[in-house]
Amino acid sequence: MRTFLAMALGKTARFLLRLVRRGGGSSLPGTIAAAIQPKLLERAIQSAPQGLVVVSGSAGKSSTTKIIVALLEAHGLRVFTNPSTANIKQGYYASVLQFGDLRGRIAADIVVLEWDEGHGAALAKELKPRLSVITNVLSDQLDRFVDPIYVQEKLAEIINNSSTVIANRDDRNVAQIANGHADVFGFGLSAELLEAGPSYAINFGEKPELSASALIKHATAERLLIMLKGTDLEIAGNYENLSQAMNVASAVLALDALVEIDAELVAQTIEALPPVFARDEMAMVRDRLVRLMLVQNPTSFQLNLDRLPSTPHPLMIMAGRDIHDPSWLWTVDFSRLDSVDVVSGFNAHELALRLHYSGVEVKLVEPKIDLANEHFAKLAGSDPTIVFSADAMRRTRRYLGLAK
Q1: What is the pLDDT of residues 114-147, one digit of tens each?
Q2: Do 366 and 341 lie in a common domain?
Q3: Which of 16, 220, 280, 373 is the most buried (most CB within 10 A)?
Q4: Domain containing 67 — which CATH number?
Q5: Last residue of a domain, which of 249, 271, 293?
Q6: Could you give the CA distance from residue 258 to residue 139 in angstroms, rounded to a whole number?
Q7: For 1-43, what is each residue's pLDDT tens digit?
Q8: Residue 64 dihedral angles phi and psi, to the nearest 5°
Q9: Per the domain annotation, does 320 fall within a domain?
Q10: DSSP letter string, 208-272
Q11: What is the pTM for the complete model shown?
Q12: Within this chain, do residues 256 and 183 fall inside the same structural domain, yes or no?
């Protein structure tokens, strides 16, 4: 009776919120359902006979999850996932509300969830993943986790409660916490590509050698070549972004641990995948390809700016309500930018002031997200780019119809 009530009230709340807020309303219904039936998520997962697969880490979770889901579906499995990338506890409950029946059951063979590091660690003991994929540890959400060591501790909880682990062998933070697990498989870059690979949170400890179960041998603008347990797997596409190549390698390795792989089907499936909502994403906005870059804090902001070879135009930078203390904007070096076409978000004026003192020309300050996006859409330029904080990102995606 409690499960039925949780599903009925949660589904009703979700429907009503979607009527008044397009692309929103995923958290509250999940909160309502969880309060009524705390075991709703656990029971839903138990209804999937092949268990739970989770993807966690600082970055790459959304992309990796989407690839794993697509590959499993291509191999004939029915997959339940959190499609809105709502990767905290309320979001998981919301996904059950969206796809489950009134008894809380899901029509799926296997569950694949993107897990926030903190929320995932809290759920790991209860839900006992069949397989976990650990992407990396970055000096990223320092406002939330204070130090990367706390991210390690959260991910260690997930690893220790998982039957099988797929781990980034190039990131010593991950290698340290995965080392010693009874059933761990490593993925990473070949020696020739390591120097050009992603940067991880600084760690002066030892670097255990995990297995090279999936090793990226080539990653170019035309193709990706992965050596999967001694067999070459080639996938067409632009993989100059080695982070995305790593996501693919981890997903393929996870698939290999779950089912018997059809190599040709794997390549066809990945080649057909559209871009996923990620920290550095190319999205089609009103018939124009726009680069969307998510920043979380000073370190994240600086890393994204440093990734730009030159100032793109048109360029919009948005500082939302999630920047509770805008003084940290003064720790970011904006001097490499020549100008910013639009500055927006709740902290737009604070950001514009910081840019002014960096000698960066600001052409328009418009705090309102909708008006800023309309102005940006009319600007000419061959490399439209939006850099935004999480709050501004959510509001922008919702306004542009990109929210799911």
Answers
A1: 988 888 888 899 899 999 999 999 876 665 666 7
A2: yes
A3: 373
A4: 3.40.1190.10
A5: 271
A6: 31
A7: 777 666 666 667 767 766 665 555 557 776 776 677 676 777 7
A8: -65, -45
A9: yes
A10: -----SEEEEEE-SSEEEEEETTEEEEEES---SHHHHHHHHHHHHHHHHHS---HHHHHHHHHT
A11: 0.75
A12: yes
